[in-house]
User: What shape does this take?
Amino acid sequence: MDRKDDAPAYPVGLRLAGRRVVVVGGGQVAQRRLPALLSAGADVVLVAPEATPSVEAMAEAGELRWERRPYRTGDLAEAWYALVATRDPAANAAASAEAEERRVWCVRSDDANAASAWTPATGRTDGVTVAVLSGRDPRRSAAVRDAVVEGLRDGSLVAPRHRDRTAGVALVGGGPGDPDLITVRGRRLLAEADVVIADRLGPRDLLDELPPHVEVIDAAKIPYGRAMAQEAINAALIEHAKAGKAVVRLKGGDPFVFGRGMEEAEALAAAGIPVSVVPGISSSISVPGAAGIPVTHRGVAHEFTVVSGHVAPDDARSLVDWPALARMRGTLVLLMAVERIGAIADALIAGGRPAGTPVAVVQEGTTAAQRRVDATLASVARIVTEEGVRPPAVIVVGDVVTVGRPGGTYTEGNVHG
Ligand SMILES: C[S@@+](CC[C@H](N)C(=O)[O-])C[C@H]1O[C@@H](n2cnc3c(N)ncnc32)[C@H](O)[C@@H]1O
Assistant: This one.
């Protein structure tokens, strides 16, 4: 039968583990292709008088066997698959003729038409291999591959698992609020979820993008009767996971920074539910950063301390050593502190921090509503009231606050919002 050169290639996944693959030529092409052959477990023999330093390193590490000489007839005797890529067209032609005769599938770098196999543009993410062939346009193949792999990674291409989907709960840190500031893994898990239980903080906009079958539950609205709100959230997580659902517990910032993430993980583990944790970008660093404040800066602050202002300094339940914090020179980052900032500023001044220490309050950082209000320790309580600052806000205390202000080093145009 006649061979039609314009017929499309037939795609197949080769299982090369333990099978001989012969690579003829040790240049850039071999260097690019070898890692995938090796990770497929192929028994690689390289035939080449010389090789690039990376290829040499693979041989030295024992990852492949290197025959340090030119190709000769018979080299493909044991091969299942061959890659021919030398600078010598005659050697390439001879090797691919041997492959044809022995019925060994052969890729040829110098003449795609003369080859019996083509290498697709490939990528792997989360257990999926993407392989793209587009005739003779390798750049287009690579572009399609990139689009699919990126889409799978960031969840914009929704391809839920059906076989090895495990029910359970993922505690996902959603970042400070800007939907672009969630991790790639977090976003993908969100796209694959059946149920999402979300806090008020975090990337709420992402919830609107979820497909209609996903049940989105507002954690603050779960009825809890006489139980604690947290117990009701734990119970809801357990109930949905036990029903075989893939559950995402979407939290603001990082799940383990004042997020009760470990309490939820422990409750789930006690109920025998598989739980995974996906870290998130904490507001404690990203919100100051988005407002132009570095939490550390060479010559200004070599330490930063993240403190909860949830409990007032004079409250017996407080676990914070305010006098010690007042004695430190570094940056203080206060979360959940808007309502108690007067008492906190008083405690810091009483403990020795100068009343003129710069303070910045950043409300709803990284969102379109972000705003920053500047003050000093002495004036912050008054200014927060006058300006009507409301939670959520991160309060930064220390000289880093003035680093990016006029006269400092920061360019205002970079500030988000
Ligand atoms: C319960 S804590 C959770 C912190 C979160 N786990 C994190 O790592 O960012 C909530 C506090 O985080 C701060 N916060 C979170 N997101 C914020 C944002 N976008 N802008 C300003 N403050 C934020 C506020 O101080 C808020 O009161």
Notes: The first helix runs from residue 28 to 39. Confidence is low (pLDDT under 50) at residues 407-417. Residues 176-177, 201, 252-254, 257-259, 282-284, 287, 335-336, 362, 364-367, 391-394 surround S-adenosylmethionine (CB under 6 Å). The domain at 163-278 is CATH 3.40.1010.10 (Cobalt-precorrin-4 Transmethylase; domain 1).
